[in-house]
Every structure is written in C-alpha cells, then in structure tokens.
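HUMAN: Now follow token order:
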Amino acid sequence: MDYSSNPEYDVIIIGAGVMGSSTAYHAAKTGRKTLLLEQFDFLHHRGSSHGESRTIRATYPQKHYYGLVIKSYDLWREAQAQAGFKVYYEARHFDMAPSNNSTFVSVVENCRENNVDYQLLRREQVAEKFAGRIDIPDDWAGLLTEHGGVIRATKAVTMFQTLARNHGAVLKDNTEVTDIKNDGGVVVLTTANGENFRGKKCVVTVGAWASKLIEKITGVQLPIQPLETLVCYWRIKEGYEGKFAIDGDFPTFASEGKVCLYGTPSLEYPGLIKVAVHSGNPCDPDKRPWGCAGVMMDEMKEWLEGRFCGLVDSSEPVMKQSCMYSMTPDEDFVIDFLGGEFGKNVVLGAGFSGHGFKMAPVVGKILSELVVDGETNEVDLKHFRIGRFSVAS
C-alpha cells in the first residue's frame, strides 16, 4: 500500500489521556509536527484520566519517584500559567500507618534523605494537629508534609490538549488505531475511514489498552493488568463540612495497613469527601462490568469510622465513580523504547498503576524527549524498562 500521499508528522501520539496529551504538548512545544490520536471522544470516561480529582504527593517508599514529583509540581504550575486556568490546588499531605509498617518506614527514610520538611506525629499529636478530625490507633504514626495537593483530572487533560493545539498539534478523536507498521519511520493504521498516518516517530500511551495493542503490533505480551476500581464519595456530617474542605487546612491523605486507602479534602462536591481503596478487580477494558462491587468496602467503612472520629457518615458512599488502573507486577511505570523492528522509533508509556497522574507533566516531557532525542536526562529509566519483565511472545 502506498502511504506517500498522507502527511508526514514528526511525532504521532496514540492515546489522548493525560499522558498522551502531556506528551503532545511537550512535543509540539519543541516545534515538532505533532499528531494526537484518540480511539474514543476526547475526555471520555472509559479509561484512567477522567474524573474530578487526583492527589499529588511526594511521599513515596520508592526513591526514584521523589524527584519526578517535585519536578511535576513546577511543571503543573508552568502549564496552568500558560493555559490561564487552574488545575493544581495546594494542600498539605498526611500519611498514616502502623508505626512499623515497612512502606511507612521507607517513606520516612526517603523524606530524611531528601531533606523534606516533615512532622512525625504520635496519636495524641495527630488529634491535636487536626483538632479532633483525624484519629489513629496508639500503635500507628502519622507523617505530615507540605507536599500535597489536588489535581483536577479532566480539566488537566483539557489543559494539555489546549496547549498542544496552541503549539500547532493536530488532534483527532474517534480514531482507533489498529496497527503500527515499520517503514523506516512509522505508519499508523486506523479504523477512521481507512485513514493511515505516516510519521517519523510514535508514542503509545493507551492506558488499559496497552497490552492488547502491543501484542497486536509485536506479538509480545506485556504483564500490564487492567483493573476496574471505584472512587467513593462520603457525606460529611452536618455542621462539619468546612472542617474537611481544601480551603481550610485539611490535607490530602494516604493510609497503609490492612487496607491501602487514599483521599482528598472536600473540593469537587461540597459536603462530600473522597476516600477510595488503592486496588480493583481485573477486567477487560472493552468488556468491563461498569459498577463493580467495591473492593474491600467493609474495610473502608471501618477505616472511615475509626479515622474521622465519627464526623463522616461511613454507612455507605453517596456516590461511586468507576475508573481504570493499568497495573504492572511491581507497580512501577513502563517508559521505554518498544525495540525490535521499531528500534527507537516507537516509545511506550504505560502501566501507571493508579499513581501516575500526578507525574503526567514530567512523564510527557520524558516521552517527548525519548521519541525526539532518543534519550532523556530527567530520570534513570532502569526502573521503567520493559526488560525487567519476563515477557512472552
């Protein structure tokens, strides 16, 4: 088939969630002729980038994420200043866990190593710090830092797409990619009226569809498991709504222990607080149940009743929103060249495991640098290489 009549792009990005949209922005900003493709409508609710909010925090047990998050704070501010509207809302961040929990211990150690300004709190200090709104068991500890905040999710994707277009990128939705061919550059085949697109390089950021598309292109099976998860909103009891609001002093938070939970202050829905379990049910992204039973719902209700001093109604969430995770076995990202016949012409960004959104600005910058320059100085990619998996073909 002759593809020569089609326009040639410097970079074609497949998947217009937050990672693909950020990549398109960074690539277009460098003057590259950029095309961003999305299989569904832009800003759809079938993947991992929609919804009202995501937390941003720097308290990771893994050492390699701290620098990426700190860079992301600056890049979020830079991008929203260019867009002219706000997507990042500042807050403190509070971690809580049994004091001997290995994840919590690693978080504290990383804070020390990176000279993060933090407060390590016992139960009575937590009660005092949060004026009776948070309680932890006697054998737990809390860690409070200034590096928290909330990202408005769908609004952030809109921001990157707007900035990409402002820098000359071409954006096309309802354009499902069926294959990528190597012809010295890349040819991207789609279902959209038989349209094919030719480019020098390509970035694949298709979220929960990554394993399916990569297997179709290369025959290689990557261990990236789509999960369906539920984000739950709970009603704050009458008279206490302001005490859990982001414009007060209530933090974003995460809790380790029997169940791993996270949440945000009240922001998007006044009178409601978001608390969810960091887990989900395995699914096929094209055949998901839509409204799966919440994972560990009883444990979450028990946690809410114990941690928020009875000020939040823990009987049942008043709202549930379904979302997708793309989990790797070690919960680290996949950021690497696809290799094989494609060499360095195709870069994969995938497996963000329910914690990548906050780092979207720097991940997009890394993916753009890899596909344009063939390298990046932003991070040591050894933690994110495909080769760490034993892949089957």
In short: Helices lie at 18-29, 66-83, 102-113, 123-129, 153-166, 210-218, 297-307, 360-373. The chain is about 25% helix and 25% strand.
